[in-house]
Amino acid sequence: MPFPAPAYGRDTLADVLPALARSLGVPEFAGASPDLPLPAARRVCFVLVDGMGELLLAARSGHTSTMRRWRSDGLHRVLTAGFPTTTATSMGLLGTGLAPGGHGLVGYEVLDPDRDVLLNELAWDGAVDPRRWQPHTTVFQRVAAAGVDVVRVAPPHFDGSGLTEAALRGGRFVGTPERLAARVDAAVAAVRSAPHQFTYLYWGRLDHTGHGSGVDSGEWTAELERVDEALAELARRLPAGTLLVVTADHGMVDVHAPQRLDLAAEPGLLAGVRHAGGEPRTVQLYTEPGAAQQVAATWRERLGARAEVLLRAEAVAAGWFGPVEDRVSARIGDVLAVMRDDIAVVNSARMRPETLRLIGQHGALSDAERLVPLFVVPC
């Protein structure tokens, strides 16, 4: 049975910021995200916890007293990420309110057609102008233009980065140390700084811990406990009337070394392939002219039922990327291999050793990767 396409325009990450703009009373968002009703507010604090998937969170509910209480109080619902379930794509959904085929951040490593090289959309490349790569006005820009004070709280090196400029530009940036308490302090100060205010807070260590130690590890659970405690502190300190909203960009699954297929040991899988991009859970293959059908057949035969292998046109027709703009189409792989089982495809010939050691993975369309929580907490 094929993976379901994300229901763009209904309960996805693309709906969150437009709904928050509507709750702040920004006129151009008055009809936005009708399936995501949020209470009106003069101040909003929006928190993104990287890697906090819904199924992972539900399985660790005994370690999250704050979020467990919010869940029992009816302050919780479930959203879906877009495709692929990777940070750059999700940031595009959040920042623009558009599906991936509109914002154009269509994976971890994707083709830059103008140069015929892969672009890592997290690390970026100085040769690519992020505002041309993603030209749509962001939600933050539109909210700030309406007179709302917009503040983004994140690590200092995010300021001016390619991904930030592409997906999350707008308002002012406050860089803080890699300490969750410092991030909370900065968010509280930002929310209190103006009567009509929208603060965004990013926390990435849970994702890093999942990648390095695995989501079944004690280290990941301990970090989740710290996140839960920080959210309780944030909710306690926010001024009355603030709307606190918490979500994530994707979930994660553990894939250990025996479950990985190494392209360096499988040269037949690279026959007819110019570039192998994407990520280990969703490989995007850019083929030689006329080779896409044969490449797809080779990958289907090798992976069998463990993956769904589609041509670009099939993935677009299935709605995985939403409506695809002409400028975006060539960035998507000619062939896509999306993992079903807890397996991953790596390439030891070009990946760094530290990347090959990562346990937690995401990018595919399993429920563990695509479902994320949404908490809406009036303070």
Task: Describe the 3D structure.
The protein is of the alpha/beta class and 379 residues long. It folds into two domains: 13-254 and 365-378, Alkaline Phosphatase, subunit A; 257-361, Gyrase A, domain 2 (2-Layer Sandwich), CATH 3.30.1360.180. Helices cover 33% and strands 22% of the residues. The chain contains 16 helices and 17 strands. A seven-stranded mixed beta sheet has the order 2-17-8-1-7-5-6, sandwiched between helices. It has a four-stranded antiparallel beta sheet with strand order 11-12-14-13. The chain has a two-stranded antiparallel ribbon with strand order 3-4. A hairpin with a 4-residue loop joins strand 3 and strand 4 (117-120). Helix 9 packs parallel to helix 11 and helix 10 runs antiparallel to helix 11. The longest helix is centred in the middle third of the chain and has 20 residues, at 218-237. The N and C termini lie far apart (43 Å). 54% of the residues are buried.
